[in-house]
Amino acid sequence: MAHEHTHPTAHDAAHDDHGPAHGWRRWVFATNHKDIGTMYLVFSLIMFFVGGSMAMVIRAELFKPGLQLVSPEFFNQMTTMHALIMIFGAVMPAFVGLANWMIPMQVGAPDMALPRMNNLSFWILPFAFTILISSFLVPGGAPAAGWTMYPPLVLQTGDAMPMLVFSVHLMGASSIMGAINIIVTIMNMRAPGMTLLKMPLFCWSWLITAYLLIAVMPVLAGAVTMLLTDHFFKTSFFNAAGGGDPLMFEHVFWFFGHPEVYIMILPAFGIISEILPTFSRKPLFGATSMIYAIASIAFLSFIVWGHHMFVDGMPLAAQMFFMMSTMLIAVPTGVKVFNWTATMWRGSISFEPPMLFAIAFLFLFSIGGFSGLMLALTPVDFQYNNTYFVVAHFHYVLVPGAIFAIMAGVYYWLPKWTGHMYNMTLAKAHFWLSAIFVNVLFFPQHFLGLAGMPRRIPDYAVQFSDWNMVSSIGGFVFGASQLLFAWLILECARGGRKATAEVWNDATPTGLEWTLPSPPPYHSFTVAPEVK
Amino acid sequence: MRVTSRAPARAGALIAAATAWLGSAAAHAGSESPNTSNGLNLPYGVTGLAHSIYDLHMECFWICVGIAVVVFGAMIYSLIAFRHSKGAIPDKTMLHSTKVEIIWTIIPVVILVVVAIPAAELIIKLEDAPPPDLSIRVTGYQWKWQYQYMDAAEGIDFFSTLKQDSNFARELHSGIDPASIPNYLLEVDHPLVIPSGTKVRLLLTSDDVIHAWYVPDFGLKRSAIPGFINELWFEVDPGKEGIYRGQCAALCGRDHAFMPIVVDVRTPDEFKKWVDQQKAASKQAAAVEPQPPPTARAESPVAGAGR
User: Is B92 close to A287, i.e. CB distance below 8 A?
Assistant: First the structure.
């Protein structure tokens, strides 16, 4: 970030002002929540482009039928690595980066509670992804069994197998440390007077997400460890010939995997709940029920994993249970969408870039929610399962859902972080290109899936040609327009019109972060503010 | 392309209009569609279960459309009516309303119950399989299917793999235009032959990794898992004899895209004729050369499946 030496406000002039260390030490030995937050966000942006370039390879190969560019093995490596990098490298670190930057400022704390662990939890990630990505170079290539890593297929992975397992372990360790830090910060470092129910929704959503992370990341670590011993030490956890059970992996994996889905969307709910009130100039409608809704979704996320496995054969009672529990998620999710709509209702709405992304989130995440409801119905899932309908569904909740929320958050807080306003025209261009072409990219995939095109295939029958071509064109334009985003952030970090403390003076941003100057001092709140 | 009269009617004007506008999913390629899908929606299918699944799908789809109209309508109205640029004054007293929040918690619950009831009934119908008339063991391999008939057709046993012309054309840089191959990637050397109007039960397992047997027109897919036997049953409507195509629907490695499923549905009489032919042919073959002893590999799906 641009500022090197901070001149704190008068009341803490007596304190020794610890500025950041200089040069590489500032980053390698970073213990400051802002520096670490910045590193998380930059890392996430880099991974977004690495994973995105893999998506471009996938869409280029699927541009027309026949294999033109890559072999089927490499295609499978692309789909697998695209998912792992986007989930664990782009979306999750982006949310942790936002948490690092914003939670101490929103609760009125000087920094995160555990700064050295914060450093460790970030610096594990570059190593984890160096290991994972370098698996392209080993015999057998990168993992190609899908990010779900189902045995027995994943056990056919070549030398990349231990690299996959070890990198997943590292990512899990990083996530757990990040989660612990967030919980401890929120529980212990809130400013006097900030009761839990007065806490901003972004902190609330992260508090609940952090508990989900602590609950399920060890489960994933256990699952991949069993894969490792099956592969190298002749155990038979998942090997039917040895008395093991390949379905058991799916149960364990999805016990992690479904809460993981909410780990990637709950902080997004928090961000949207911050932005909509600001640009509607009106407080969030039903703030308390929003918190209960997040908590209900988090609880339900633990009892719905079976809906990923309907076609694997399941007792009648289990099919019923998982169908109904999954459908129940629509209730708290509906409450959230209705409350957001009511927040805009009789407001005074303006369309700054963060608001544009938040509005697109409302519409497009809802579309992902509708297809989610359809997928919950067990009998119909026998048709949808493993087709492009599923691909369309989860990309709708992850791209215009989670990623649009991250972008909304970046556009909302970037002037606060850098002290500069960014180029609004460019940001709006980025928004319109993204919002239009994300639909060109993913909407036709509903049609492909319903017409019977399976997912994870490098080549397809000719009647799927047209929509694949449309989808690929959407993908290329969507992908290219993200370069605007990177350029805009770089430009804003370098300079620009000075941002005020409130940044969005014309609107009504609420929260402690807006009482600090832009950019905020190195130790956000050296004296805890009083919250009434 | 096989089109049932019912499918477009049920899908409604919206989809019909979209289809007309598109008009190309199957027509453009100049080859027949693999199923009764119009390229935009689920196929209405050729089995009773597929029809029920299609109806449930459409019911849920229209409910979602209805919710979308109301919710998106409210959002769009807000965006237009309450614009800052038009001098809208925010109503800052609107913080929450227990009454409204209870209403919009209960309405979704009611809608969910309305959807859940037919869905639950259909699950029961799917699980309540009457005794089958014909059972076929289906074993997935990387990357082909094996069909072993039981009951009256006992003894018929063959592998089904991607047809040669597709297999050549799908090679990287093959230089062969996929559109020039009839049923590119959806044609096999030996299709599964079954009778119409007959309850057929598939017993699915795998010899290596997890595969999934999927024919959209039959409405269902089911995983083939090593060490497990999964059941799948269907009854093709009489009068719907013909060729139906599908693909493996679980990532199973390098050639996952290249192990299609083709089912040749015949009338019960025609099917019986086919069975007799197959049996006669195998008897002839057995007379000419002594039957080779069954290999361990061929036996394993049966032996390994007894969980």
Answer: no
Is B113 part of a structural domain of the chain? yes
Q: Are residues B165 and B266 in the same domain?
A: yes
A408 CA: distance to closest CA in chain B (Å): 17
Q: Is A250 a catalytic residue?
A: no
Q: How far apart are CA A273 and CA B198, in angstroms?
A: 56
- Residue A236 a catalytic site member: no
Annotated active-site residue A500? The verdict is no
Examine the domain organization and report whether B206 and B292 are in the same domain.
yes
CB nearest B104 (choices: A320, A338, A447): A338
Q: In which residue are the tokens 């893999």 written? A: A54
| Domain containing residue B275 | 134-303
CATH of residue B19's domain is 1.10.287
Dihedral sign for Cα atoms in the order A122, A124, A125, A127: positive
Please answer yes or no on whether B183 and A70 come within 8 Å at the CB atom: no
Residues in B closer than 8 angstroms to A70, CB to CB, are: 172
Task: Please report whether residue B181 resides in a domain.
Answer: yes
What is the mean predicted confidence (pLDDT) over B234-261? 95
Q: In the annotation, is A198 catalytic?
A: no
Decide if A331 and B247 are in contact by the 8 Å CB cutoff.
Answer: no
pLDDT tens for each residue of B102-117:
999 999 999 999 999 9
What kind of fold does domain A32-515 have according to CATH? Cytochrome C Oxidase; Chain A (1.20.210)
Give the closest-approach CA distance of B101 to chain A in angstroms: 7
Contact B210 A457 (CB under 8 A): no
Say how far apart CA B29 and CA B209 lie, in whole Å: 33
Strand ranges of the sheet holding B157-160, from the earlier edge strand across to the other edge:
B157-160, B144-149, B134-141, B200-206, B230-234
Nearest to A396 by CA among A293, A299, A265, A266: A265
3-state secondary structure of A254: helix
Q: In this model, does residue A29 exceed pLDDT 90?
A: yes
Cβ–Cβ gap A349/B88 under 8 Å: yes
Question: Is the ipTM, as predicted for this complex, more than 0.85?
Answer: yes
Distance (Å, rounded) from C-alpha B187 to C-alpha B237? 23
Comparing alpha-carbon positions, the chain B residue that sits nearest to A245 is: B227
| pLDDT digits 0-9 by tens, B179-218 | 999 999 999 999 999 999 999 999 999 999 999 999 999 9
Q: DSSP letters along A139-201, please?
A: TT-S--STTTT-TTGGGG--THHHHHHHHHHHHHHHHHHHHHHHHHHHHH-PPTT--GGGS-H
Distance CA A173, CA B224 (A): 34
Domain boundary, last residue among B94, B127, B160: B127
Compute CA A448 distance to the chain's CA centroid, rounded to the nearest angstrom: 26
What is the least distance, in Å, from the CA of A61 to any CA of chain B?
11
- Smallest Cβ–Cβ distance between A382 and the set B94, B116, B220 belongs to B220
**Count of domains forming chain B:** 2
* Averaged pLDDT, A17-24: 76
Cα gap A47→A41, rounded to integer Å: 10
User: Does one domain contain both B179 and B292?
Assistant: yes
